[in-house]
């Protein structure tokens, strides 16, 4: 039988198949982290769990919803937090988004991971540390740590995107020719994804601090203030990345236009040279009865010489007038 949830605390971690194991976990004096596996839980088990946790119906439905943007709402015993985040997709070149749903209670944090492959194992390892702050500062600090790890992963992802932009810049400098537009379009889509996520994420820590009835002690306020500063910094970095990408976009298409202009200039040069030659050929091709040049013994060679002289004169003019 598959486990329906994982209960984690500083003393132990174990998978449970029924709500009896959940009640045992809730009796711990230290913060308890419950990870739900919704694909393995029936509606009856979910409803019973919400009753045990004293989860009011509206907040409970908000917690399970997958259509929420990053934000939070308060409930009778704590807060419900939805966090959208970005991570590399299985297919390279684009980002995919995941949702981490968190609900806090006096000594319990419940989480659901919807989509994505977010790795929270380092936090589990910290919970096992006997001198970890997670033992003393409660579930509010656990919430902070989870959000802090998530923000750090967004910074790491942004650094990866910056490296891709630097590689494209190096390509432009070394080869002096544009690269594939598909790479640029993929980066622009990723920049839009990151901007959408960080714009809503930067407001979350401030809302957690300014709750009407804080679910944690004032000792945690400096941690959430620091998290807010990190979120603002992340948002600013994403803005700088978008600006850098726009500059790269402009340079890329300026080089494409420059290449097209060179091609058009060469085509225009040949057209300019052949226009008078076409005129001469058309003039002597009118087949009037009285055209003296048509009777000349060397008329053909004279016409070719005239054409060659005109073409050479135009080519020399364009060459030394620096129009080529």
In N-to-C order, the SSE pattern is EEHEHHEEEEHHHHHH
Oligomer: single chain
**Poorly predicted runs of 5 or more residues:** none
Q: Report the portion of residues in β strands.
A: 5-15%
Shape: rod-shaped
Question: Strand order across the biggest sheet?
Answer: 2-1-3-7-6-5-4
Which range best describes the helical content: under 10%, 10-25%, 25-40%, 40-55%, 55-70% or over 70%? 55-70%
Walk me through the topology.
Layout: E1 5-8, E2 13-16, H1 19-26, E3 32-36, H2 43-52, H3 57-64, E4 71-75, E5 78-88, E6 95-105, E7 108-114, H4 121-127, H5 138-175, H6 181-201, H7 204-209, H8 221-283, H9 299-320
Parallel strand pairs: 3-7
Antiparallel strand pairs: 1-2, 1-3, 4-5, 5-6, 6-7
Helix pairs in contact: 5-8, 6-8, 8-9
């Amino acid at each position: 039988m598959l486990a329906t949830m994982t209960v984690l605390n500083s003393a132990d971690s174990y998978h449970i198949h029924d709500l009896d194991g959940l009640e045992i976990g809730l009796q711990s004096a230290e913060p308890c982290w419950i990870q739900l596996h919704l694909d393995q839980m029936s509606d009856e088990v979910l409803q019973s769990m919400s009753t045990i946790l004293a989860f009011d119906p509206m907040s409970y439905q908000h917690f399970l919803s997958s259509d929420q943007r990053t934000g939070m709402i308060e409930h009778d015993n704590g807060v419900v937090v939805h966090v959208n985040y970005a991570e590399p997709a299985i297919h390279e070149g684009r980002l995919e988004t995941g949702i981490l749903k968190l609900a806090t209670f006096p000594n319990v944090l419940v989480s659901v991971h919807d989509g994505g492959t977010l790795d929270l194992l380092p936090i589990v390892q910290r919970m096992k540390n006997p001198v970890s702050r997670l033992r003393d500062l409660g579930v509010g600090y656990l919430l902070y740590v989870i959000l802090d790890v998530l923000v750090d992963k967004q910074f790491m992802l942004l650094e990866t995107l910056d490296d891709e932009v630097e590689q494209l810049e190096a390509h432009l400098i070394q080869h002096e020719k544009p690269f594939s537009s598909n790479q640029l379009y993929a980066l622009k889509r990723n920049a839009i994804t990151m901007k959408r996520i960080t714009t809503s994420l930067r407001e979350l820590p401030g809302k957690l601090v300014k709750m009407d009835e804080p679910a944690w002690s004032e000792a945690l306020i400096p941690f959430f203030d620091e998290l807010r500063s990190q979120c603002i910094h992340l948002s600013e970095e994403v803005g700088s990345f978008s600006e850098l990408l726009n500059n790269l976009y402009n340079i890329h298409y300026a080089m494409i236009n420059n290449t097209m202009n060179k091609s058009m200039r060469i085509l225009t040069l040949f057209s300019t040279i052949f226009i008078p030659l076409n005129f001469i050929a058309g003039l002597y091709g009118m087949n009037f009865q009285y055209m003296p040049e048509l009777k000349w013994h060397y008329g053909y060679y004279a016409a070719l010489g005239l054409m060659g002289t005109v073409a050479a004169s135009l080519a020399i003019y364009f060459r030394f007038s620096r129009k080529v």
